[in-house]
Amino acid sequence: MRVTNKPILLVEDDQVDMMRVTRALKDVHVINKIVHRENGEDALNYLRDGNSDKPCLILLDLNMPIMNGIEFLQAVKKNERLRGIPVVVLTTSDDQQDKLNSFNLGVAGYVAKPVDYRHFVEVMRSIDAYWTISAMP
């Protein structure tokens, strides 16, 4: 990832999935700091805090309490300062409406979380490779 070493914001309510993402990113040698928030509301508060580093990427779960991923996306994409941050949905949801809503709200990608850890690492490697070679504004 490494876009000037900005953090990656992980919005995920499940502690096991949070640990899997963090471990997989470490396994593929991503050196960016991982900032974890457990729901959309906490993540929005982080993003709106002027003292917080703006992330280079947001990894977003959809099914969360308080404010789910779609509600979070709606708020982020309405905010001129935040809308340019790429968001990759990383979820267990295979719901077509979730996919449609996510892409209509401008996500950069929609990835199903593999159950098998080796496949999960490969998904993280692919995300890292894409954002490493992608020219960011």
From TrEMBL:
Residues 7-128 form the Response regulatory domain. It comes from the Bacteria. The keyword Transport does not apply. Keywords: Phosphoprotein. The modification 4-aspartylphosphate is found at D61. PROSITE patterns: RESPONSE_REGULATORY. GO terms for biological process: phosphorelay signal transduction system. This is Response regulator receiver domain-containing protein. It comes from Nitrosospira multiformis.
